[in-house]
Amino acid sequence: MDLQQLEEEARQAALKDIQNMLQRPGQLEKVEQYRHRIARKKASVEALLKTGMQNQLEGVRVGLKQLETCMQDVREVRRRMGEVERLLQGVPEIYDALEVVREENTKHSQYATAMENLKHIFNVDASVQKTMALIDEDKLLSAHQCLADLENSRDDLLYELHKQPKQHASDKITLKRHFEKVDQVSQALEKKLRLIISRTLNTVRKKPTVIVTALRIIEREEKNDQFALQQQKVTNFLPPGRPKAWRAMIMDVLQAAVITRIEGSKLEERADNKLWLVRDLEILRQIILEDLRVVKSLCVPCFPPHYDIFNEYVKFYHEGLSSYLDNIVKSGLQGNEYVSMLAWVMHTYPGADLMSHPDLNVDVLKLSRPLLHPEHLKSLEDEYLQNMERNYQDWMKKTVDSEKQEWYSEQMPDQRDHYYNSAGPVIIFEMIDQHLQVTNTIHQELTFKALVLSIQQVELFGQTYLKNVIELKEHHFRNRDQIKYFTHYIITIVNNSQNVVEMAQQMKHLFWPKSRTEHYEDFEKLLATFQRIRAHAANYLLEEAFLDMECHFNDLFTVKWLGSSIAVDTICVTLDDYFQDYNHLLPANFEMVINEAQKLLAKRYIRALLSKRLSKSRSECDAITRKINLEAKRIKQFFEKIAPKISLSDSPLDLITTLSALIVADIELLALDLHTLLGSYPSLTEDHLVRLFYIRNDVKAAEVREKVQDAMKSKKSMVSIAKQDCIFKEIVFSDKLW
User: Fold this and answer.
1) Residues 475, 147: Cα–Cα separation, whole Å
2) Distance between CA 620 and CA 628 in Å, rounded?
3) Burial of 116 by CB count in 10 Å (0-12 exposed, 13-18 middle, 19+ buried)?
4) Closest-CA residue to 334 (of 390, 262, 264)
5) What is d(CA 194, CA 200) in angstroms, rounded to the nearest whole number?
6) What gap in Å lies between CA 288 and CA 563, rounded to an integer?
7) Cα angle 688, 689, 690; round to 5
8) How far is it, in rounded angstroms, from Cα 559 to Cα 340?
9) What crossing angle do the helices spanning 587-609 and 520-548 adopt, rounded to 10°?
10) Which keywords, in A-to-Z order, does the entry hold (predicted)?
11) Hey, CA dihedral for 439, 445, 450, 454, is it positive or negative?
């Protein structure tokens, strides 16, 4: 470090400070103050430096003193190490000289051990007999003490042999042979303890002291095992028969007793009682609940805390029950046994009736494994659904066969509240409801699967039902004298279809989760199938009625018809006769048949009107129009009479009067009338309109054709808002007028 440079730098810094302090004239008066301040500061800095130097010097002084002390200690250690080396040079000679002493010491130790155990050595047989007698008399603590004395004597002698540098196998064999009966006593005591522990649940209620005694012995043996293992680590000597592991042994005995108790609960087989599984599971529930109550209230105070005996028993019962139920499942279940098993495993076992009972409060979710593996539960559910499907198929086949047999019988169908019906659909939905109620006790997902399966099976039943209905209709119309109550059973079929639709909707309302949308098409398909059956059967009713009226429709708009009202009167009388039977239709079905009958009647009447059977003058057409209007009114009054509660507004019968008014229309204004008519009924074709004017022979064919074609050209493409417009789509003639 350059002192001159430091001094120069200090001088320059001092000059700068003085310049800063004396920048104004008034500051010269304070020069003396500045000088005193600087002097005090200098004195302070010098004092600090002096103190620092003194501290440094003191530290150096202490360090030097410590180094001097260390040097002295090192010299002392060196001197003493030299003395130890000189002393050790004579050890080999002393070791050789003491060889005889060592041999004598070993002999003395063996003699001392022999003297200590002399009583047991010479009285092994007597001690064994005494111990066996104590075991037979259930004086187990005394017996264990005698056994411990015998084992200690044997183990001490064996240990002395083990310590000898030159070991002879014959000595150990001789000694072990001499004490071989000790092992028999140990085995006898173990057997006795096994017996006591296996009866723990019974014994602890009457004589808990017996259990406590057994556990005290086991705990002593556990401590002896631990001591022997610790000694082995040090001396490499392990007494024969150690470790006994009697604690693990009694746990195995308890587990075996639990398994035996579970398996012994079975009283019946399937051949003895159809409800064997329900009874077996209920017996198991009662046994397990009672046993675990005993364990919690009586065994816990008897067993040491570290045994955690209650949780151990819960584990034993859980594992034993799991294995037992697994074997039952593998052997195969039938019918409602699937439901009984699933409900018991998923609800009864973990629920308040067993594990969650207030006396137990066991959380099954914390156990090592589920009672039944999830794959086994899934397999059970699948098998249950397959079994349900087979049951549905059998029941529905029987239902179809039974219904079919009734159709061809000589007996009228059953009535309920005046309406024809059969028991088949009700039975089917009662069976479905029972299945769904049962699955609802298991879990919602299984209920949904069962619901979807039920819907699919009912839809398949509907398809088979429809085929049989079609077959019934074809069979009847080949010879209408074969089936006596055809009409009545068709009415029954219509009502059954309506009932199925209503019951299906009720079932959906009760069991279909609002959040589920999958498989909804299956439900819609079911409704569509039975609506189709309902529509088909209703059409068969009217088809039969209209078949009887065929000849009367053929008489319409003929010369014979002009002078008589017999045709329409007969049609009304015939329909009235049939509607006496149709009164047995449910209200919704009756209304549907009324509407369909009006539509068919209007269609047949209009078809006859357009069939070119008459061609008259303008004046005669006025009379024809009046007759048509009267007959339309007559027919409408008939429907009002037989169905007073059903509104006939916008009836298809109104089309008859609409067309009749067109017959007498002014030819000059015909285009306007046609335009209005086509606006309401766009399905009217050119052929329909030309055929209508065939009745008027005062109009030239070319003129009619021209006006009709002009009206058809001006007709805008539109969708009809009149619901009766579809009638014209169904009136088609094979021969064209033009």
Assistant:
1) 98
2) 12
3) middle
4) 390
5) 10
6) 95
7) 95
8) 78
9) 50
10) Exocytosis, Transport
11) positive
The amino acid at residue 331 is S
Q: Tell me the C-alpha to C-alpha distance, in Å, between residue 339 and each of 355, 396, 662.
A: 20, 22, 71
**Residue-wise pLDDT tens digits, 503-546:** 999 998 988 888 888 888 999 999 999 999 999 999 999 998 88
Q: Are the C-beta atoms of 217 and 134 separated by less than 8 Å?
A: no
At 8, list the tokens: 């120069």
Nearest to 688 by CA among 707, 671, 708: 708
CA distances from residue 139 to 196, 209, 210, 223 in whole angstroms, order as listed: 13, 12, 10, 21
Q: What is the four-CA torsion angle of 534, 538, 543, 544, rounded to 10 degrees? A: 110
Task: Write the DSSP assignment of 252-296 as a string of letters.
Answer: HHHHHHHHHHHHTT----TTT-TTHHHHHHHHHHHHHHHHHHHII
The tally of CA atoms less than 13 A away on the side-chain side of residue 553 is 19
Helix/strand/coil for 312: helix
Residue pLDDT, tens place only, 641-680: 888 877 667 788 888 888 888 888 777 777 777 778 887 7
Encoding tokens for residue 216?
A: 């005290």
Position 737 scores a pLDDT of: 45
The distance between the two most distant Cα atoms of the chain, rounded to a whole number of Å, is 167
Query: How far is Cα 280 from Cα 414, in angstroms, rounded to an integer?
Result: 44
Angle, alpha carbons 24-26-30 (nearest 5°): 110
HSE, side-chain direction, 13 A CA sphere, residue 6: 3
Going by C-alpha positions, the residue among 398, 390, 465, 403 that lies closest to residue 435 is 390
Q: How far is CA 502 from CA 95, 496, 506, 507, 527, in A?
A: 112, 10, 6, 9, 9
Q: How much is the pLDDT for 505?
A: 92
Whether residue 320 contacts residue 255, with contact meaning beta carbons closer than 8 Å, is answered with yes
Neighbours of 92 (CB within 10 A): 9
